[in-house]
Design goal:
The chain has helices at residues 18-23, 41-52, 75-86, 114-132, 142-148, 179-182, 233-241, 255-267, 278-284, and strands spanning 2-7, 26-35, 38-39, 56-62, 97-99, 137-140, 162-165, 172-173, 201-209, 219-224. The chain is an alpha/beta fold. It has two domains: 2-224, Glycosidases (TIM Barrel); 233-284, PGBD-like superfamily/PGBD (Muramoyl-pentapeptide Carboxypeptidase, domain 1, Orthogonal Bundle).
């Protein structure tokens, strides 16, 4: 199991030891870079330390919506704040993530329609794509898509790789092993993305305490969905970023695809194992299609 964490300043983490976190088996870490257009202080403090410890790193924008009659910054301003906070990405960094959710009582608190909420997200996504040249990762969940967004399809978002939340474990002591962990069900995928396997990261436990390297506060636990076999939309996503013609993007992870992944890994100084893990995914996600 390939594990990682995400966290933010509100989680109360102090004296983080990223070297210990990596030594414990964590492979990636994603920090909240901005909340609306406000910079997260933990990101500023820890961003460089994650890379120094050898973890794959990423930053996310918590997209704020109007709530309870209170205004929120325009989505373009929120996206620009993320870009300014993260700065120029380094080789091996994850693309920025757009966090699309509606805490509290859901979309109703925004006073916006489904269409208006999706447009808000698309406007932020557009600024990010224009700045970076590639799609952001999209953090959301099947529940959000069903209950708040009415299972609405939008073709402009389906190229965004998915980071999905679904909690089989309650908050509390961190879960990293055990029978229930090994048999964990995959997160359900929102209908616009189709395939049940079309996700890359699963946030499986929120507010976990006792994660190595985090002596105080809490983190959200995540697992990465490596790709090395099978058929479907994720394979096509990889094939497109290997600069294949659309005709050859058949969605089969066959011997030809495996060899192409290995060649890509060699070109970027990665271990040529033919598996799309966090590091290879991070490099592939920056390939312009």
């Amino acid at each position: 199991m390939i594990l990682g964490i995400d966290t933010a300043s509100i989680a109360g983490n102090k004296a983080i030891d990223w070297t210990a976190a990596k030594a414990s088996g964590l492979s990636f870490a994603i920090l909240r870079a901005t909340w609306g257009d406000a910079v997260d202080t933990l990101f500023v403090k820890e961003w460089d330390h994650i890379r120094e410890a050898g973890l794959v790193r990423g930053g996310y924008l918590f997209l704020r919506y109007p709530k309870g009659g209170k205004k929120a910054p325009e989505p373009e301003a929120q996206a620009r704040a993320l870009i300014q906070t993260i700065g120029a990405p380094q080789p091996g960094d994850l693309p920025p993530t757009l966090d699309l959710e509606f805490p509290g009582d859901g979309r109703a608190e925004t006073g916006m329609t489904v269409g208006a909420c999706l447009d808000w997200a698309l406007r932020a996504r557009g600024v990010l794509k224009n700045a970076y040249g590639v799609e952001p990762i999209l953090y959301t969940s099947r529940r959000v898509w069903r209950d708040d967004l009415g299972d609405t399809r939008n073709d402009d978002l389906v190229e965004c790789p998915l980071w999905l939340a679904r909690y089989p474990f309650a908050k509390g002591k961190v879960v990293r092993a055990g029978a229930a962990f090994d048999d964990m069900a995959d997160p359900p995928v929102p209908p616009p993305w189709g395939d049940a396997d079309n996700w890359w990261i699963h946030q499986y436990q929120g507010d976990a305490v006792g994660c190595p390297g985090f002596p105080t506060g809490n983190v959200d636990m995540n697992r990465f969905n490596p790709l090395y076999e099978g058929h479907g939309a994720r394979v096509k996503w990889v094939q497109r970023r290997l600069d294949w013609s659309e005709l050859n993007c058949d969605g089969d992870f066959d011997a030809v695809t495996k060899t192409a992944v290995k060649n890509f890994q060699v070109e970027h100084g990665l271990v040529p194992d033919g598996i799309v893990g966090p590091k290879t995914f991070a490099y592939l996600a920056w390939q312009v299609v």
